[in-house]
Amino acid sequence: MTPPRISIALATYNGGRFLREQLESFSAQSLLPDELVVCDDGSTDDTMDILSRFEAEAPFPVRIHRN
Are 41 and 14 in contact (CB under 8 A)? Predict the structure, then answer.
């Protein structure tokens, strides 16, 4: 039996205040996701910076789309 594929879809908008903790929780799971797909709706806070740093260090692929 093949293990399930896990894809996380995350929508963001000016969520920098809470985003680090949320992203860290994805990396701390006993079964890591196969990918994280983020769609940002034009954040004006530090959301995109946080996402970019996480993308560079994440133990799984991260795709970021900015509207």
Answer: no
For 36, the 3-state DSSP assignment is strand
Global pTM value = 0.91
Residue given tokens 């996480």 in the structure block: 54
Tokens 């896990």 found at: 6
Residue 7's pLDDT band, with cuts at 50, 70 and 90, is: very high
> pLDDT at position 53, please?
98
What's the pLDDT at 3? Answer: 77
Task: List the Cα angle 52/24/3 in 5-degree steps.
Answer: 100
Residue type, 63: R
Query: What distance in Å separates the CA atoms of residue 9 and residue 1, rounded to the nearest whole number?
Result: 25
